[in-house]
Amino acid sequence: MMTSPELGEFRGIIERFAGIVEGFAAEVDQEKMRAVGVQNLLKTFSKQRESEQQQIQSEIIEKMVELDKLKIEYQYLQRIESEQQEVVDNFYQNQ
User: Fold this and answer.
1) What is the distance between the alpha carbons of residues 74 and 72, in angstroms, rounded to a whole number?
2) Which of 2, 49, 57, 88 could form a disulfide with 6 if both were Cys (CB 3.0 to 4.6 A apart)?
3) What is the pLDDT of residues 72-91, one digit of tens each?
């Protein structure tokens, strides 16, 4: 059987141990909250990146369509220039 001083010492050890365990529990909870925050931040960054990537792909498609239109217009203008040059050449030949 424990005497009163031994019992008091045992209670003190138990209280210190309980304090240490509570401190660890608080640290674990804090780290869990931090980890959840980081995880949410990473998800947000990932969604932003996906959104930016989709926007850039859309812009690329728009620019490709614009480029195709400009190529067609350029070919048309080359044809007109050629025809005009032919008219000019014919004019000078007939002079």
Assistant:
1) 5
2) 2
3) 999 999 999 999 999 999 98
